[in-house]
User: Fold this.
Amino acid sequence: MKEESLKRKQEIQTPKGKLGVLIPGIGGAVSTTLIAGTELVRQGLGEPIGSLTQLGTIRLGKRFEHRSPKIKEFVPLANLEDIVFAGWDLYEANGYEASLYARVLNREHLDPIKGFLSEIKPMKAAFDRKFVRNLDGSYIKEEKSLRQLVEAIKEDMEAFKSQNGIERCVMVWCGSTEIYSEASDIYQSSQTLYEALEHNDPRIPPSMIYALAALESGIPFVNGAPNLTVDVPAMIQLAQEKGVPIAGKDFKTGQTLMKTILAPGLKARALGLEGWFSTNILGNRDGLVLDDKDSFKTKEESKLSVLEYILQPQLYPTLYKNYFHKVTINYYPPRGDNKEGWDCIDIYGWLGYPMQIKVDFLCRDSILAAPLILDLVLFMDLAQRVGMSGIQEWLSFYFKSPMHKEGLYPEHDLFIQSMKLKNTLRYLMGEEQITHFGLDYYLNEKQE
Ligand SMILES: NC(=O)c1ccc[n+]([C@@H]2O[C@H](COP(=O)([O-])OP(=O)(O)OC[C@H]3O[C@@H](n4cnc5c(N)ncnc54)[C@H](O)[C@@H]3O)[C@@H](O)[C@H]2O)c1
Assistant:
């Protein structure tokens, strides 16, 4: 393909009007941290640390041109001032109460925006305890059939849009991790999924109900949890048919973020791996849900696959053929949202001599997740406005289990993911892709 064809010339219009952010799981730790944080930034009471759209820059052209605008000045993204939040939860607590419960942000941050947060009132959830066994909330929709539930969610969204004068929306699943489900035949095409929906098939989880409501309403959908939701052929097909972008799954925060930073480095230097033992203690509601072995299985699948794809043992048998990889999560209430993740990494070097790396990441899950969601919302809105639909693989940067086209393997290396994202932005804005080739500077010199 000619380089020229990798540039997009079309003008992208500046976004106008309000952008609705619709969140299933709006009362959770991640959601409340996102919402409070966005308002604090809007009021000049905090900095959007961790957000590429707000703080990141992008290099354009050759290195001697010194062109590195901020991403938000380079691509036409919605302004934070135009964002309006709404969502669903099975607990009725308003945004302020839910933030206090989450114990992520302290009162120094919450009290100045108490009025704003108290106005965030969840809508009743589409919920089925079969899929999240450790929760007992009762603020739940009463519709009996699955189709009625989809319609009820759509009505909620319509009411929100008209009451708040919303132009465009993005939906982000920040609900609890649902129990593990195998890729079933009902997920094979939009037709089989719709047939299953009409028959109230018990294999359709609530996250799919929200996703269907979003896709049918032309609203981009992001999946922040490891449950399949839109990562099945039926939903991918539907997203394409409806011309809607989808992205997922499972926000890449704490331990997996570290893994996808370290593992590419080991591989780049051809260092071998004998074993990688990862364990976590966390005490928030997410930890409680993941204490159920079937919910944990969903998470485990998501966390385990990362190394396999980065290290490619089939290409590097001497280095990675038999490494042992184990991930555990332990629910430990005293730690709250401030997770501790340990990694014990056994590597080997020249002639097979062993070495060890220990990582003890005292991280804050929701503090790491909130900026990712803000970026995803703004980039998905951009994708929708430029007419991109289906899987948005260029947003792999944000996920533990990036969705990808059938026949491709997922890209987990954080640095490749970052290049992929920035090159997509360059492409959208009609700028040259940057390959970091570099020899061209020296070759041109010789010719001169
Ligand atoms: N915090 C992170 O770093 C991180 C990273 C990756 C993925 N995630 C995922 O993001 C999700 C949210 O994490 P969290 O820490 O905020 O968890 P949380 O338990 O604090 O919040 C989840 C919320 O979802 C609600 N909920 C569950 N099912 C629902 C439904 N059907 N409809 C509406 N609401 C529903 C729960 O009541 C709860 O308030 C989880 O699935 C988690 O695994 C979090």
Summary: The chain has 17 helices and eleven strands. Residues 24-25, 27-31, 88-91, 125-127, 132, 135, 137, 174-177, 206, 224-225, 250-251, 253-254, 284-286, 289, 365-366, 368-369 surround nicotinamide-adenine-dinucleotide (CB under 6 Å). The longest strand covers residues 272-282.
